[in-house]
Fold this sequence. Notes:
8 strands, 22 helices, alpha/beta
Amino acid sequence: MSNYREGSLAAPMRHPIYWENEEYYDETSLHTEMERVFDVCHTCRRCVNLCQSFPTLFDLVDESQTFEVDGVDKADYVKVVDQCYLCDLCFMTKCPYVPPHEWNIDFPHLMLRAKAVAFKQGKTKLSHKILTSPQKVGAFSSTPVLSGVINWTNKFEPFRKVLEKTLGVHVNAVIPKYHSNKLSKRFVNQQNDSQYKVAIFGTCYGEFNDPDTALDIIDVLRHNNVEVKLVQKTQCCGMPKMELGDLESVEAYAQKNIAPLLELVKQGYKLIAPIPSCVLMFKNELPMIMSKNKDIKAIGEAFYDPFEYLMFLNKEGVLKTDFKSINQHILYHVACHQRVQNIGLHTKKVLNLIPGLDLDVIQRCSGHDGTYGVRVETHTYAVKIGKPIAKKISEKTDLVLSDCVMAGNHITHISEHEVKAIHPMSLVKIAYGLDKETT
């Protein structure tokens, strides 16, 4: 008797990514697997509203001579791949055929393989390689004087048109600011003999574009008597390069990060990053990409989402809950790369402790997703994907929160209403009375 079943009661599981094997880059083998998976997706179609990959696939099928996957030219498979930004939502929230199901469907990792094959074949655009190098771009753009010039020109339409033609950054896409007064410059060590110890992995975005959010997280942790350090001499987490299919760079970055992170883990520190994508990278992706590396596994087990750690403190009975009332209507967007960590809605749980908040929670993709939201080829789709969230913003909305500040900024940028987006931890800091400013 067949073991076929619709869905599974077992938890989804993922396999190691054997990207170092030669067969991984065999295009014929890749296309065979893509045809198999696409055929399952075509007969199911549950993911049609998640992103542009699935509508693209289904249109290719419906416009083919056979109205089946076998009628789609394999040269057009890349059109599906280009629309996938590896959010993992199809795997975690929609697909009933993920492992341990016998059909063994892992759509995001199949798209990753296709991206890796294209990268290996030299088909990746130079502009995409530059845009997925946030540490190099950030280090250059955040130098004194130059950062001010870049921030000004990024608001200057004639320059943006030049940027669109040269680097493929859409003229209407929101671009983050660069700060010469970086996180590593602003961080101040404070001695604390607490049993609770956290090391902050600042991330490229936190170091160069948004040091304020990282500092707000630090202030909230210290308010709760947590000893906080800033991890020094780190490389990019590798998520942008993974989305490009450049897995060799991903591993090279990880090898540089292992020593400083592992040393802190051995000293009893938990690890936190202000960006969900970076936490996800260490928790989930790197242990699959480097499945034989015990050090990266130990580092991943020590990584926490910021609000996951606050709820850990709450469970320990040491989280301070003396919040002042904030009587505002808040739209809270749950970031995709936080959702797929499968940790629960810890941010919502903490926000619910703040009296007065009128909280509207939305679990839907913003469409930003790294470089996808800024590239000229995909920005229009990013706006389309994010519009249902942006339309939730009304005249009564006082503030937009997102665990991914880039997603929050994208949402407010495409909204018809002018409203500010901040990280939820910044609001927690205000609720603690640690910030004199009001929202």
